[in-house]
Structure prediction request, 329 residues.
Amino acid sequence: MSPEIAAVDELFPEVENLYAHPSVHRELLFDEERMQKYSEAIRRVVKKGDTVADIGTGLVILAFMALDAGADHVYAVEQNPTAIRWAKQVAIHNGFENAITFFEGNSCQVELPQKVGVLVSELIGHVAFEEGIIESLFDARNRFLSPGGKIIPRSVQLKAALVEEQEVFPGYIQVWRNLLERAKSSTSLTVSDLQVLLIDAFFEGDLIGRLPKHCYLKTFEEKEIMSQPQTLFKVNFEEGEAPKSLETSLDFIPSRGGEINGVALWFEAELAPDIVLSTSPLSTSTHWKQCFAPVLAPIPVDGKKPLLVKLQLKPGGKFPLSLEIKDED
Ligand SMILES: C[S@@+](CC[C@H](N)C(=O)[O-])C[C@H]1O[C@@H](n2cnc3c(N)ncnc32)[C@H](O)[C@@H]1O
Prediction:
């Protein structure tokens, strides 16, 4: 396997106890676009004297921003025991310990002493919803937020476009397909040996017709994008109720002829009115990059006929994404 290919980040399965790794928090704090957009939104929304709840406080950066914007007090909730230990030290070192009350545990299991005017949170995953933002923010809104209170982010949407991906697919996924073809005419390798390999590496269950269970992090180049982007799901935290399922089927029209081998996925989070944090390939880059969700075999397209994209997300599931792309003929 070539070094470029080994360097591709597989998104699922996730790293265990992710937020007990200092490098993960470092990546968040050094993401200038993320920090800039959150700082703008918090300055816009938080008013002098507000009480704020920071759901998933990590190293308390959003709590600091809220205090800086004039908040009186922040309730900082964090479920990771290592992260909350660091967070308390950071608060003491910066002289904020009296302005922040820490609550250790998952926000859905925590009680706050009073309702708050603003909820701030950054629980946005690479495919937007896989870090539990829906469950956590709707619960926090229903139990912690005063009537008319504000939520940062107000809404999050997952976007997608068809792609002819030119790095992971030819260099990584196609390799296994080629091996399988070779095995069919080989005396020493059997298809079933390779099926086991393939299943371990990429697929659940039977080989034929199954969907990839993995998703890859990468930065797409414009030339790889093969359709207009569309919104797959939009979740509005300030209004309405949590969606019961995230499952959609949408037609995408390829913008030119070629071979579609998956979709690019990214999100747009409206942090405050007109303040949008976007991880689109055309926006300022962030640590989230984009996700590449591949299909098993490339689909030739002529640039005219639509393809049907079916995508299901299972928030909190071990492999939370399933994708099917169908030529409707
Ligand atoms: C992406 S990090 C963001 C940390 C920090 N707010 C920031 O912006 O740098 C998410 C943090 O939220 C925590 N977390 C996720 N869901 C939570 C929940 N429902 N209740 C409490 N903590 C949660 C994680 O352990 C992690 O530390």
In short: Residues 158-327 form a domain with the Hnrnp arginine n-methyltransferase1 fold (CATH 2.70.160.11). The chain has two domains: 18-154, 158-327.
